[in-house]
């Protein structure tokens, strides 16, 4: 009997209140030219960082992080540059030596929950005002009935066991070089090169292979790229894989072709900047 696989989703959001807009750095923008746009861009940048541990990584596709963020948000480089400069000066954006941007305020405002927890919360809302059933009346009187927290723990345990079982089954499956896969256990390889891997991270890597149909060796390349650049964090690897998935890159061959195209465009841009568009070898 085939068991249906359910993807565990994790929802992220920023929890704002009035104090955010009462912040002196935010209030100051109201009197600055372009201040409203800078506030919106700052919030969008924080939202973009949520899935990568509140850090926006410079991926190296363009000359700098500013250009990559401008393209991602579909806004001008000048607006992103002004926003980054202002909030960096205020200490709300921190740029590291590799050109990555960390958002401490996003960490403070971050909220998250799984789809199971969201279902339970929505279910509780629906029950508000309803007439209690016999079970609702009996349960508080009995210590033998499992509480909602215990039920959620059991569900989490079942999910964790299910994930581990599927991972073991996947690692035992025969594979061939013809379809771009290998007998490499990607989860063990991650822990060898990067560090400990938790259940959520394991599921994300598995989704890239099972749902996005990426080659195992392509996921390995993302891990190698992070380790070789001393960026040993799941957030950095996830940002690489997410970018590849969005661009339809599923195989090593496709990524090689993308890299060649990128280097070709970069060389053409350098030649244009050096000689000017009107210059010719003739």
From TrEMBL:
Residues 256-282 are annotated as: Disordered. Residues 187-256 form the DnaB/C C-terminal domain. Residues 13-127 form the Phage replisome organiser N-terminal domain. It comes from the Bacteria. Residues 257-268 have a biased composition (Basic and acidic residues). Belongs to the DnaB/DnaD family. This is Replication protein. The gene is dnaD_1.
């Amino acid at each position: 009997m085939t068991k249906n696989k359910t993807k565990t989703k994790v929802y992220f959001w920023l929890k704002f209140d009035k104090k955010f807009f009462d912040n002196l750095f935010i209030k100051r923008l109201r009197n600055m030219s372009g201040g409203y746009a800078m506030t919106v861009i700052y919030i969008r940048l924080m939202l973009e960082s949520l899935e990568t541990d509140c850090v926006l990584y410079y991926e190296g596709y363009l000359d700098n992080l500013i250009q990559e963020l401008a393209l991602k948000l579909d806004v001008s480089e000048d607006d992103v540059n002004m926003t980054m400069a202002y909030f960096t000066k205020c200490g709300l954006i921190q740029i590291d030596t590799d050109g990555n941007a960390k958002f401490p305020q996003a960490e403070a405002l971050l909220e998250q929950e799984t789809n199971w927890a969201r279902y339970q919360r929505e279910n509780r809302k629906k029950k508000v005002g309803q007439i209690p059933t016999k079970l609702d009346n009996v349960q508080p009187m009995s210590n033998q009935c499992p509480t909602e927290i215990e039920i959620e723990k059991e569900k989490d345990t079942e999910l964790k066991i299910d994930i581990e079982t599927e991972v073991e089954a996947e690692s035992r499956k025969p594979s061939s070089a013809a379809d771009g896969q290998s007998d490499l256990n990607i989860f063990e390889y991650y822990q060898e090169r990067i560090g400990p891997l938790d259940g959520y991270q394991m599921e994300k890597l598995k989704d890239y292979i099972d749902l996005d149909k990426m080659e195992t060796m392509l996921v390995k390349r993302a891990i190698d790229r992070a380790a070789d650049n001393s960026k040993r964090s799941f957030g950095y690897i996830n940002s690489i894989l997410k970018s590849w998935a969005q661009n339809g890159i599923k195989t090593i061959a496709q990524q090689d072709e993308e890299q060649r195209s990128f280097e070709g465009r970069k060389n053409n841009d350098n030649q244009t900047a050096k000689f000017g568009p009107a210059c010719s070898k003739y």
